[in-house]
Amino acid sequence: MTSTGCPWMNLVEALRDGRLGPQEAASMERHLKGCAVCTGLARDLHRIGDAIRAPREKTTPLSHQRARVALLERATALPAPRGSFEKTRLLLAAVALTGAVALGFFGGQWSAATNRVEIAQHMTAPTRLEGAFEPHFRPSDDARFTRNRSAGLDEVILEHGALDVARSQVRAGERFVVRTKDAQIEVRATAFRVEAKEGRIRSVAVEQGTAEVQYAGFTAVIPAGGSWRVTDEAAEEEKPVETAAPDGTSSAVVPSAPAKEKMSTRPAIVRGDGWTPDRSSEATSDTAAEERPEAWLPPPAFTVFPPPPARVPSAASRAFADAMDSLRRGDYTDSAGKFEQFVSTYPGDARADEADYLRAVALQRAGRIAEAVAAAKRYLAARPKGAHCADAQRMAGN
Amino acid sequence: MNTLAPKRLSNAAALSDEELLVAIAQGELGPLGVLFDRYHEPLRQFLLRAAPNVSDVDDLVQETFLTATRAAASFDGRASALPFLMGIAVQLLRRRKRTFARLRALYDAFCAAPTVSRPSPEEHVNQAEEEALLQAAIARLSEERRIVLVMVEYNGMSGPEVARILGTPVGTVWRRLHEARTELRRALERGMR
Fold first, then answer.
1. How many Å from the N-terminal Cα to the C-terminal Cα in chain A?
2. Chain B contact set for A76 (CB, 8 A)
3. Between A and B, how many CB-CB pairs are < 8 A?
4. How confident is the model at residue B175 (pLDDT cuts 50, 70, 90)?
5. Among residues A2, A261, B7, B49, which is most buried (max CB within 10 A)?
6. What local confidence, expressed as pLDDT, does residue B45 receive?
7. Residue A322 predicted with pLDDT over 70
8. Per residue in A111-165, pLDDT tens?
């Protein structure tokens, strides 16, 4: 240990931290060769540095992967980042300028109620200044709906009436959902229309983007230009103008008139309490089509959706969750089979890597060691850069 | 901060740190995963040394990245995002100091602190014992001294760089570093007696 004794001692630290100039550093290094006190101090500092740099436990690829997933899940739940102050300031300036122009434009003509609507029309901000992601709602006169916004979820509960919604896009990590008592619509559309009656879904029409309707255990994906409507018997009783879907299923995606045409006539359609003559003539029922053959277009690619087809993403999620449930329950043989099924059914799914590895884990826990080793080897062969390679190698006995 | 063309996000792994943080500031989550892959381990290793008494380092790492998503717009565009993340982590550590959780963590650390018995003369020559002595002394350093020591000795940062991250004068950095080393050398001397 060093304690006292050399006037150069204070420079030892400075030399180590690179605070000395070239000449000072050179002379200090020369001094160190002949001074036991300063050499001892330098050795102590070196040992302290070594203690700080001493290796600590590193994360395994598996725990890294888990931490990554957890982070992204938590980040998804965060509210969207707010724009920078400069953007806000620019927006405020633009709004103030627009207001000033509007005031100047209307000048002395400002007179209470009569001009308010006109002013409001002129004061609409340019599209690019409006909230880029904020949806715009246009409800029918009789529409009743509530909107709940929480972290990452924008939810509209439609009780009655029709609702036209236009929005730019749904941001990454966010969901926009429309619910009724009996259905849920996961919206990825940018322009669409939903109708409900007494809390029950009646129809969905998509102009741009897509929407996924979950209704009575069915899932229907509606592409741009398509529409969906309830055709069950109860609905038929309420809507005598319409006829049942040809195959008699409880829900159907049906071809519709070009979406733009439909949407452009909305203000006239949604007037009244729902099924006015205007509206029934617009509905794409078989009867109406027979009367107006020009309203029918050749059936597009989308057709009736039976219970969730294998390629619907939620089916993959259910299959994976099912396998995980078996694993948690301790039904390892069942779990291994389900994971294998998952990998073969959804080889391109993001969870295929996890499933392939967990199959080996399940087999190992089931006591089927030889099969577990074979599964681990298969994992390593199929996924040489997989997230679980280190664990799989241990399992394979490498 | 610049704006980022959406097409570039398709290959987020090839983006620079600044581009990643621009994308994160715009609400993208994919680049956050890439940033996490790049700096999760270096940040964790920094915190394991700078905050050895914190029992939930992994939580702190997560908090740091989550806070970075909100603070991404303030990234100053330097080559590496690690100092930016370290600055956030240090702020989170300081904030914890003012909370009950901090008191609890201190209590936990006190309960779990390694008991360093006075080494016998035979053990003086034992390098492992000396290492344990130093590690215990490092754990007893004040947080501000330890953070500076780790940034300089482990991360190899210069005094001005540390000062920039911590928002303190450079002189304060050198003073804390000197005090930390002096304290550790005294601990070594006590152990040798």
1. 47
2. 29
3. 109
4. very high
5. B49
6. 92
7. yes
8. 444 444 443 334 333 333 334 456 777 888 888 888 887 766 788 888 888 888 8
Q: How far apart are CA A70 and CA B55, in angstroms?
A: 18
Output the CATH code of domain B12-113.
1.10.1740.10
Closest CB from A53, A57, A75 relative to B32: A75
Residues 57-86, chain B: which have Cβ within 8 Å of A? Answer: 58, 61-62, 65-66, 69-70, 72-73
ipTM: 0.73
Fold of B115-193: Arc Repressor Mutant, subunit A (1.10.10)
Q: Measured between alpha carbons, how far is residue A177 from residues A135, A170, A195 in Å?
A: 12, 10, 14
Does residue A284 register a pLDDT over 90?
A: no
Tell if the CB–CB gap between B27 and A81 is shorter than 8 Å.
yes
Residue A376 lies in a domain: yes
Q: Which residues of A touch B182 (CB under 8 A)?
A: none
Query: In 3D, which of B81, B75, B56 has the Cα closest to residue A67?
Result: B56
Verify that A290 and A154 share a domain, yes or no.
Answer: yes
Domain membership flag for residue A3: no
β-partners of residue A203 are A195, A229
Which pLDDT band holds residue A258 (cuts at 50, 70, 90)? very low
**pLDDT > 70: what percent of chain A?**
62
- CB-based contact A224:A206 (threshold 8 Å): yes
Q: In the prediction, which pLDDT does B184 show?
A: 92
Which among B40, B62, B153 has CB closest to A52? B153
Q: Give the side-chain half-sphere CA count within 13 A for A370.
A: 0
The SS3 call for residue B148 is helix
Structural domain for A117, as ranges: 85-129
What is the torsion angle, in degrees rounded to the nearest 10, for the CA atoms of residue B102, residue B106, residue B108 and residue B113? 150
Specify the long-range contacts of residues A262-265, CB closer than 8 Å, at least 24 apart. A262/A193, A262/A205, A262/A207, A262/A227, A263/A164, A263/A191, A263/A193, A263/A205, A263/A207
Round to whole Å and give the CA distance between A98 and A125: 7
- Euclidean distance between CA atoms A99 and A125, whole angstroms: 9
The predicted pLDDT at position A80 comes to: 56
Is there a domain that residue A203 lies in? Answer: yes
pLDDT surpassing 90 at residue A288:
no
- Per-residue pLDDT of B113-135, as tens digits, reads 554 455 444 544 456 677 788 88
With contact defined as beta carbons under 8 Å apart, do A186 and A170 qualify?
Answer: no
